[in-house]
Amino acid sequence: MKTTTFGLDLAKRVFQIHWVDMETGEIGKRQLKRDQVRPFFANRAPAVVAMEACGSAHYWARQLTGLGHDVRLIAAHFVRPFVKRNKTDAADAQAIWEAVQRPEMRFVAIKSEAQQGVLTLHRVREQLMKMRRMQVNQMHGLLYEFGAGVPAGPHGMTHAARALTELADTLPAMVIETLREQLQRIEALTHDIAAIERRLAAWQREDEAAKRLMAIPGVGLLSASAAIATIGDASTFRSGREFAAFLGLVPRQSGTGGRVKLLGISKRGDVYLRTLLIHGARSVLTHQKQFSEHLQHLLARRPFNVAVVALANKIARTIWALLAHGRTYEHGYVAHAA
After folding, report:
1. How far is CA 58 from CA 17, 36, 61, in A?
2. Do the Cβ atoms of 272 and 225 come closer than 8 Å?
3. Where does the Transposase IS116/IS110/IS902 C-terminal domain lie (predicted)?
4. Is the Cβ–Cβ distance between 224 and 316 less than 8 Å?
5. Does the pLDDT value for residue 338 go beyond 60?
6. What pLDDT does residue 261 have?
């Protein structure tokens, strides 16, 4: 008996399903309310269920996998070419059904609840960092209008508080009070960010994979935890280069007539993790005293930022190798071809 393939278009309330009966060839289309999705698939024989990797996709993937189905998540930009007409729920479900049957289609690894929990901490921290950066920059600009120069960065807020005390006799009380409230908000954001980092550190102490990743030069707490949570299952990628391409750390290609031109990095995939790896690579090249022969030659013939991205690419490949093969980091390790 052939396995039935379902294309499931996710939504908040109304879900659309598309499938073809393998015995009769009849095309099935159906709308389901949110509370009807699980009972519908619970009464079906094990099948292939395809969904776009969008909001709530990993939750439904875990739910349907628990029912015995083979769930496959597809990136949204891989589904779009199969939409034949106007974008509707029915057209999207049919496009998902067609896309999942392509032999070379790539799928997104299903994340566990623990991995999504770690990503949640990272997303909240990232937003708090942006909010604090906005508040700090505004504080600098407002104090500068009154002739008070404050050192850059959140650490300069101590000088900002001192400047407010000095300006208390010359500025209106309502201005001083408002700026002090701004300082309190910055302090509260800093406290919240530190609390999230403590939670990540506590998780890292109990996770063996994170400990192994942090042995890589340029990989710290944030990079290690974000990498583990973002990758999901490392076996999804066939090689370290595929993982680096997933992060957008490989060159874009443009070619015709058999001639291929390499451009800048593609910048595809997860921006957050790519940024962390590039910052880690820059820290290594800035603070490390001794470099390998490869890095020495690279820095001698290429600009510094190009070398930073190249090192970030190498770090990404190393992360994949440690996770995919369960290895520990070895300085100077050289892979041997089979």
Report:
1. 17, 18, 5
2. no
3. 211-295
4. no
5. no
6. 84
